[in-house]
Amino acid sequence: MKCKPPSSNTAPSDSEEPKTSKEEVVIAPSFNGRSWRYLGRFHDPPQAPSNLFPTTAFCGSISQRKPTSDNLLALPLTTSPTVALMRPSLSGVAASKSFTCLPCLLRTSTRNSFQRPVLTYTERTTPKLSPAQFSNSARQLHAQEAPDQTAAFNTAASLRPTTAPKPLLDIKHIRLNPDLYSQNCIDRNYKSLAEYPHKINALFAEWQAQQKAGRALRERGNILRRRLAGPGGTSRDDPREIIDEFGDMSREEILEEARKVKAGLAGIEETEGKLQAEMERLALAIPNLTSDETPRGTEPEVMSYINNHPEPEPALSDRVWRSHVHVGAELGLLDFAGAASSSGWGWYYLLDEAADLEQALISYALATATRAGWRQVSPPSVVYGHIAAACGFQPRDANGETQIYAIAQSREDAARGKPELVLAGTAEIPLAGMKADTVLDEADLPLKRVAVSRCYRAEAGARGSETKGLYRVHEFTKVEMFSWTLPDQVETEEIFDEMIDLQTEILGGLGLHCRVLEMPTADLGASATRKCDIEAFFPSRRERNDGWGEVTSASICTDYQTRRLATRLKTKEGKLVYPWTVNGTALAVPRVLAAILENGWNESEKSVLIPEVLRPWMDGREKIGPRHRMN
Q: For bias kind Polar residues, which ranges apply (predicted)?
């Protein structure tokens, strides 16, 4: 048979044939041998599959054997089209009718690669289109598809992925204690969420009303079904007024009434689903309840100190202090200008001994934690956005400031509902996600893990002296501890205290003067019920907060994360409950490195003292001297 391919300019003569390429598309016949289904696309296959039957198919002629449901057919394609259409010969002989193949029809049409249309053969002659008709059809097709794709993109971006763990929240506890949760939101600086508990109660009342209406309609539907079964098809429990109402109805009238009942039930069920989804959305946004140990208000409580203050009486001291930015420039250890050129503000280069110090700090923290029985993990730095959200890390904070970096999605991936990926702000997120949709065994608890990872924070803060240098950056290395425990206050606090002891040991060994704080409600994140920070003394920050700056933190999150990640625990009695999680920073490199540079600086020697515990990983060196200069 002969192909007459159209053109957007002039129609070709019958003698012209399109050029063929080595590109092939594989299609398969349906059970009746009349419909063809697109399977895939191959480039220069080294060897044809064994189940391909002999064929020659190209624009202008075609011959083949009669296909069966088990056969595949390979078609050479022209260079432009993405799919091919052919007409099988049902008699097993070469076809002779003229047709216009779809490769030629689609030559000037742009189709999305993810669309896989079903190509169906009919015995009618394929209609031929003039060049003008084809061009208009292609433009109309493109115009019709574009809005749908945009709608699909917006819908996919707003929906929770079906692969995400299903959160199982204790909404009943919120309904029974709305004032408790409301006041908790206010105490923790989530004032915009304070009305959510009461909104949940209002939505629940609407849901109950829908449930009552649904029961009445189902009862009415049951009576209708019994009436359709026969004149005496009633129950003595049926309301007399409904029986009397249906008594004189014809069968057609009863059927019509049943249709109305069915439609009413469908509407009620849809409304119930929306109400439940809204209650869950509001409950997900509400922060965790606060521990009794947590101070109310904005002021932390000092619990203890680590090491002595390096300058207890500043007025009597003649020691010269420098910021780590100055020290890094003096010794050629830090390059902020180069990082600003390559990446922007909030990034940095560690050079020579500073890079060695980073690795030494990591090794020191890991050795301390693993020696205490914490198992080491190397986690991914990229996680699903819904995993980060389940851990309490939202894309934006209450003030609308971006918190985490999201990896841009293509329109096609969003339309397919592919989950969004983000850069992890801490190893806590991938560690918590490691047990998502998992049932733990009570005999295995507590699970204690320690991980080193790169961390990415979008909210590095505004430029200024307080955030200058390494104190607040977008990317850094951190050693993180994470644990799953029994849902028991005593056992969880034992792990929490163990984390703080390890933090104290690590920072104390570095010779840094620190203080341990019980953080107030205003400083807690969404997931934490209790949080303790350790702040180190930074000489360059003496005019701000008396020189104190946070270097580690530890938090108890109870079942906030495990309920959102569907992590469950099977007790010895066989009951499924939710374990609690605890997380803590073993060591965050940039701030600790900055504290070492500032506290170890010797103005007369222009050198920095290396803490003794790090020297095994620094080739035994005791000091970093002025021999290095930035080039």
A: 1-13
| Cα of 376 vs its chain's centroid, Å | 24
Q: Which pLDDT value is given to residue 235?
A: 56
Predicted local distance difference test score (pLDDT) of residue 461: 56
Q: Which amino acid type is present at position 320?
A: V
Q: Does 463 score more than 80 pLDDT?
A: no
* E strand map for 226-374: 301-306, 334-335, 349-350
Distance CA 10, CA 220 (A): 68
Helices (H), 231-250: 240-247
Overall residue count recorded for the chain in this entry:
631
Lowest mean pLDDT among 97-111, 203-217, 393-407, 451-465: 97-111
User: Contact at 8 Å (CB) between 319 and 544?
Assistant: no
Among 87, 125, 78, 123, smallest CA distance to 105 is for 78
The larger pLDDT score, comparing residue 433 to residue 56, is at 433
Mean pLDDT across 365-391: 96
Give Cα 335 distance to the centre of its chain.
33
Q: Please check whether residue 501 is in contact with residue 374, taking contact to mean a CB–CB distance below 8 angstroms.
A: no
| DSSP E strand boundaries for 539-625 | 548-556, 568-570, 576-577, 580-588, 601-602, 607-609, 623-624
Q: What values do phi and psi take at 334, rounded to 5?
A: -125, 140
What is the average per-residue pLDDT within 580-601? 97
| Alpha carbons 61 and 63: distance in angstroms, whole number | 7
Provide the residue type at 98 as one letter.
S
Provide the pLDDT for residue 252: 82
Rounded CA gap, 398 and 190, in Å?
7
The contacts of residue 405 (CB under 8 Å, 6+ apart) are: 422, 423, 456, 458
Give me the helices (H) in 332-464, please: 336-342, 353-371, 385-390, 411-415, 428-433
**Is residue 485 within a helix (H) or strand (E), and if so which, with residue range?**
strand 475-485
Name the band, by pLDDT with cuts 50, 70 and 90, for residue 415: confident
pTM of the model: 0.72
